[in-house]
Structure formats: structure tokens, C-alpha cells
Amino acid sequence: MEANHRPKLEDVAAAAGVSKTTVSRVLNHRGYLSEKTIAKVQKAMQELDYRPNIIARQLYKQRTDLVGMIFPTVDNPFFSQLEAEMERQLYRNGYKVLIGNSQNDPAKEENYLQQLLTHQVDGLIVGTQNRGLIGYQHANLPVVAIDQVVGKNIPVVSSDNYQGGLLATQRLLDDGCRHIIHTNGPLGLDTPTQKRREAYEHLMTKNNLPAITYHLDFNISTIDKERVFRRIFEEPPEVDGIFAANDTDASTIINLASEYGKRIPEDLKIVGYDGSNVTRLLLPGLTTIQQPIDEMADLAVQLLQARINGQNVKSVVLPVTIWNGKTA
Amino acid sequence: MEANHRPKLEDVAAAAGVSKTTVSRVLNHRGYLSEKTIAKVQKAMQELDYRPNIIARQLYKQRTDLVGMIFPTVDNPFFSQLEAEMERQLYRNGYKVLIGNSQNDPAKEENYLQQLLTHQVDGLIVGTQNRGLIGYQHANLPVVAIDQVVGKNIPVVSSDNYQGGLLATQRLLDDGCRHIIHTNGPLGLDTPTQKRREAYEHLMTKNNLPAITYHLDFNISTIDKERVFRRIFEEPPEVDGIFAANDTDASTIINLASEYGKRIPEDLKIVGYDGSNVTRLLLPGLTTIQQPIDEMADLAVQLLQARINGQNVKSVVLPVTIWNGKTA
Predict the structure, then answer these.
(1) pLDDT tens across A69-84, in order?
(2) Do residues B261 and B202 share a domain?
(3) Which domain of life is it from (chains A, B) (predicted)?
(4) Do both A201 and A177 map to the same domain?
């Protein structure tokens, strides 16, 4: 197969025996053309498998019908469900999606952002955790953020992280846990997940119990993560409850617990976070805080469309629920 | 915030006090320009947050540096790991990715395909399970398929499905299972996963055992899937081994087994398929056939680049391994 030779407008004109202007008129539905001429040109296009260059056409049009998405990764049950649902909704509304996964790398995120802007996306949905990308604010582009405060004029769709922190911690307290550890992301970043920690600290303090949070970097390897989590079992106090940053962390801790002879939930109770479809399917026994992932995705798409249409929109916080598994 | 007004070339020219031609020269690094003029134009571009219209520029260029991907869904541990890894590799090689998730809907797949072609992607990586899209063959476009025979000139990257079927079935036979059921996709489609079934049937027949395959539609709901799987426990023969189509199906069956009072692995042994990172993390006890997902992704990107550069490439089949969990 010959690589990459695309038939051009002149090839169609030659095959149909008409001028390039005539082909162009057929393509753009402009000017007077006989049925016969139209049929001739369309037949030539079909035979040559000619596809009009949408790039050229977009020059005359304000919209590209492309939406950009920048997220940390698609390889995570929370983000993959979120991205899949947004893509589904965007497609339903006539948009195609350009995705960029930043892997929490600010340089890669910036690069993707620039690329998406130069590709003239109609709008952007962002869910990355890095900061300092003031480009989001400078660009005259409709942007919606998910679960991240990106800039002061950018609406955010999130679920109630503080409520989630309260629900998780209260469940462990109600179960009789007194030595509860919380895992979270890096402390330096002002991410909404820190609200879960604040809720945890608030309840622990209210109950005169020490609040201990393990902060983990985003890009830490699985092996290093396990090393950190081992400290939970090896260092005092003897832990009896864990409020994990997400379901995959909860699963890693559950797997480690058996190594240390801890029975779940008898010796150690665990509450995860996210409650994606995949987690609920693979690990239905995990008690976890369930974010309304599909609703967040649908709402983000609605808000972006409103922004594209020039409407002002406000940030929205959706409630979370607890999934009652067997680990707490 | 004002919606969607993008500064134009003439705005930059006006702000810099130069002609449009001069701005265009600065953008395209063409013609003689003084350092002072360049600085003036660049300053104006920065202040206006002007971004050159890449769409217009691509008209003069053969490549868009865009690669399209069409897959059934991103919301599945196998595909999300595969797509994430391909995106990582493509980014490393200077490409951005346009994705379309077909949800196994031929109309949606066709629509995405047309869109990607009109967006002038440099190449396409496809992993969808529907057929009849002869467009893949007609388009003069570099295409690589993953695990799907798409057309006779299109190279396929796959893992050894027949070997996987042998490994899974042999493990269950070695464990002493005699009533082994296999789950798979719809029989009508000539997908490579049918090779797993053929391997299963081959080994069962060789051992004088009946081969029973449950065929499930792709878009079946979770509830309907469970209904089908219940028949495994409710209909004779009394099953003692299951070779599941994928890890999420294996997990669903494991969850059902306890309802029917079946202990795993004592009463029932199960082997899954895929062995993605997420599955191994959330369900490490599952014995499963592990596809080399990252290697498949890396290879698909390599082959596509070779095709884009006009080289001929051949299909590749990678070996699979068995992950030794506790379910078989």
C-alpha cells in the first residue's frame, strides 16, 4: 500500500473533466451547478476516495467542533470512567475530543495546552493537578475544570470532598477505630483533595484523637508507594483504621495488611475513595466514598457548552455517598 | 469573561505598527527582518495572547502530527492501559492524539473514522471489534490495528490468543477440573478472541471433555451479564472450572460464586484474561492470562511511525504469560 498520498482537489477536477472552481462549488454548495455536473463531481470524489480538507474549510468557520481534555492519566479507574463519560456526552453533542494526559508533569501539561490552543479547540476540560499554568486564564477560551481550581474565572465541577472526608472518618470512628491514618497527595499543592484531609483532621481533633496523614507524591512508583504504606504497619501507633486517598491505594494497603497478619475488618478497617464502576466490580467488598463520576462528567460537558455559547456559568459541587462494603 | 474572541493576525499588526505581511514573515521565519521588528511583533503577540492558527499553517505542510485512535472504550482496564501507554509513546514522538470511543457501535465508529480522516490525521490506530468498515482499506492512510484483523493490508499487533487459550485451559485441567466453561464474545464476529475459544475446544476435545462456551454480546448490561452467568451455576453440569473472557467477567463470576455457596478455589477454579495493572492491583489473587499490554502499545506506535514514513511493516504476535494467583 502506498503511504499517505491523498487525492487532491485537482485530481477530482481532472477525473470529472471540470475546473477546480466547479469542484470547489460542489463542495461548498455555492453557485449554480447542474444536477449532472454535481453527479459527475461526486462520482469522481467517490472513485478517488477524495475527502474534502476540513482544515481548509475551518478557516472560514468559527468553530472546529473539537474539545480538548487535559487529565493526569486515563489509566486509573476514576479518570477513565470520567473521560469515557465526557467523551460519550461530547460526541452526542457533535464534538470530537482531543485528549492529553499530563502524567502530572507540568511541562507535558503546558505542551499539551499549547497544542490544543493552536489546534483551535472550541473549549477545554481540565482535571490536572499541577499549577502555575496561567495560560488557562490568559487564553480567551471556554474552560471548565473538574475537581481543580484552575483560575478565578474558570468554573469547577467537583464532588464534595469535605463531606467525603467527614463520611469516611465518621464511619471509622463509629466502627470504634481510635488510631486512624489518612493517606493523601503532596501537601504543597492546594488541591481539593486536601479538603478531605481537613475534614479528617477536624473530626479527629473533635474526638481528641491524633490526626496522622501520610502524604504521597503523585508520580511515586508502585514499589515506593508500598514502601511508604509499610510504615503504617511498622511504626507506632498500632493502626486500626485507614481512610485512603483512593481505591487503588486502599487495595494496596489491604494486600499489605495480610502480610502483617492483620485481618480486615476485624483488626483493621479501611475506607477507600472514588467508587468507580471498575473498582466496584473488581473489589465490591471495599467500603468507599463514591463520587458521582458520571454526573460530574455530564455536568462538565453541559457547563462547557454553555461557556462556548457565551453564557456565564457557576461552579457546582455534587454530594458524595458511602458504598457499604465489608472493610469498614 | 468574553467568550471565544481570538485575536487575529491584523490585531497583532496594528498593535506592533507593522504590516500583516511582516507579522506573517515573523511567524514563518521568512524574508529579511530586523531584530527590532521581530521583537516588536513578538511583544505584540504576547500582549494580545495571539496564537498562530495552526490550521492555516497545516495547509502548507504535509503532516498534522495528529494520530487518531478508535477503540471500543477507555473505561476498561485493558483498553485504558493500552491507550495510556500509546498516548505516552506518541507524545514522546511528537504526536498528539485524537481519540474516538465507539462503544462497539458501528455507526459511531464510522462517524469517528470519517471525522478523523477529515481532520487529516497522519495515521490511525484501531482496536474496535466491529466490521464492514471498508473505509479503513479505501483510505490512503497509514493504519495499524491492535488485536483485530481490519483489512488485508493493515498490520496487526496482537498477543497470542491461541496460546492464551491453551495456557488457561491447561491450568484448569492440571488442577483436576473436568467441567470447564468458557465465556467469550459473540460467535458471529471473526475476532481474534475466538482463537482463545478454539484453543479451549481443542484441549477439551483432546481430553474427551465437553466444551461449553457462553457467548455474550459486547454491549450487554451488567445486569444482563449477571443473568447469563447465573446460568453457569444453575444449569448442569456442575461446573468446577471457568476460563473467563476477561478479568472483569472473572470478577463478576467470583462475586456470584459465593452466592451459590461455591468456595474458590476449593469448589470452583477460575482463570481470567488480560492481566492489566489495575486488575493486578485490585484483584491480585486472580489467576489470569497476562497480555503484554505496554509492549503491544509500544509496538503499535513503532509500526505506525514506520507506516507514516512509507515503510512496509508486518503483523506481530507477542507471547502471553500466566499470572499465578489463588483462583486456579
Answers:
(1) 988 888 889 999 999 9
(2) yes
(3) Bacteria
(4) yes
Chain A to chain B, count of Cβ pairs less than 8 Å apart?
183
User: Inter-chain contact B74–A84, Cβ cutoff 8 Å?
Assistant: yes
First-to-last C-alpha distance (Å) of chain A: 59
Neighboring chain B residues of A307 at a CB cutoff of 8 Å: 3
Q: How many CB atoms lie within 10 A of CB B306?
A: 16
**Do A272 and A183 sit in the same domain of this protein?**
yes
Residue B2, domain member (yes or no): no
Distances (CA, A) of A36 to A11, A13, A17, A18: 19, 14, 12, 12
In angstroms, the separation between the Cα of residue A178 and the nearest Cα of chain B is: 27
- What ipTM did this prediction achieve? 0.76
In this structure, is residue A150 part of a structural domain? yes
Cross-chain Cβ contact B278/A112 below 8 Å: no
B326 in A contact zone (CB under 8 Å): no
Domain match, A184 and A245 both: yes
**Does A282 contact B247 at a Cβ distance shorter than 8 Å?**
yes
* Tens digit of each residue's pLDDT (9 = 90 or more) over A110-159: 878 877 776 678 899 998 865 555 455 555 788 999 988 777 788 999 99
Question: In this predicted model, what pLDDT tens digit does every residue of A172-215 receive, in sequence order?
Answer: 999 999 999 999 988 776 678 889 999 999 999 999 999 999 99
| Parent domain of B171 | 161-290
| CATH code for position B107 | 3.40.50.2300
> How far is A70 from chain B, CA to nearest CA, in Å?
12
For chain B, the domain total comes to 3
B283 and A284 in contact by Cβ < 8 A? no
